[in-house]
Write a structure and sequence with these properties.
- This protein has helices at about 30-40, 50-60, 75-85, 100-105, 125-140, 165-175, 195, 215-220, 235-240, 250-260, 265-290, 310-315, 340-355; strands spanning about 15-20, 70, 90-95, 110-115, 145-150, 180-185, 210-215, 225-230, 290-295, 300-305, 320, 320, 335.
- The chain has two domains: about 15-25 and about 265-355, Aspartate Aminotransferase, domain 1 (Alpha-Beta Complex), CATH 3.90.1150.10; about 30-260, Aspartate Aminotransferase, domain 2.
- By secondary structure, it is of the alpha/beta class.
- The strands form three sheets. Strands 2-8-7-6-5-3-4 form a seven-stranded mixed sheet, sandwiched between helices. It has a four-stranded antiparallel sheet with strand order 9-10-13-12, covered by helices on one side. The chain has a two-stranded parallel sheet with strand order 1-11.
Amino acid sequence: MKDFPHGGRTYGETARLDFSANINPLGMPEKVRDAALQGVLRSGEYPDPSNTVLTEKLSRRWGISPEMLTFGNGAAELLLRAACACPSDVTIIPIPSFYEYERAARACGSEICWIRLEKENGFVLDGRILSEILHAARRERDRGKTVSVLLGNPNNPTGRCIPGEILDALLTALEQMDIRLLVDESFLPFAKAEEAHTVIRRLKSGRKIAALRSFTKIFGMPGLRLGVLATGDRQWNEALFGCAQPWPISLPAQLAGEAALDEKDFITATTELITAEREYLCRELQKDLVWELHAGPAPFVLFQAPADTAARLKEQGILIRSCKNFRGLDETWFRIGIRTHEENRELVEQWRKLR
């Protein structure tokens, strides 16, 4: 069996609590679940290949043209499709970051240029990292290479957002160099300051930037697989359509997505829960359980602890995510998703018993 480099591996695992994945602890909203079930009952018919209702609802919510939106079978599928739609010779990726960035780029024949985020600076993409990205982009472009940049915002597994002024400076500089930028915003809906960090409000026709979003994380529907990519780059959009299968998402996922876009109070309740529980976990873990900890607005925290931490917690029926397969980290780094207060408290109590 091929190795699966992600969290949420409950198949074949015996676990009471799964902190290895980053899914909304509130679960799937009731109306979204009902819509998905309706989709199952209607699965004797094809889904709408144009995603008409989804597209209209989301374009109104984000205030962008419907032509800027492309839906797919989750964010990971769209990452691969985006990379292959307009492949570049070199892809610049800060590390540590989500494994699928590298996988998508390599699948399309791209070389990878790694930019290392500094632990001493909280793994934040600051002015120094910005300079390194731009220097690498100019160097590769001067060598006659086509270049793209791929970022997470918030980044996984560090949880850090890119400061707004750094993001704006990056967008301007890359636009001047005619370089494409893809920003994975799958965890941004968990942040209270979402508007300050998103590139969606910075999209405009002809601009070679794209935002990737996942319905999976915020709406607690990982089994349904639904993601969306937004860009004003017409060539990119046409290429994305050209390399897609005829029905990229199922009817249950399509109807669930339509219902999810009507949820507003659910998002507010989620951000409030995540904010409060992140503060609780950070406070408790830093007392006596971890060596150091990094957290941002994402629904997870990154920490460093003894290398056997995951194995010892697994003996207690608790799964956490080892980060040893993230470039730039080793076997002493781990990530835990933020769950409900009862689950978080159980994690802390069981962890302390191991000391």
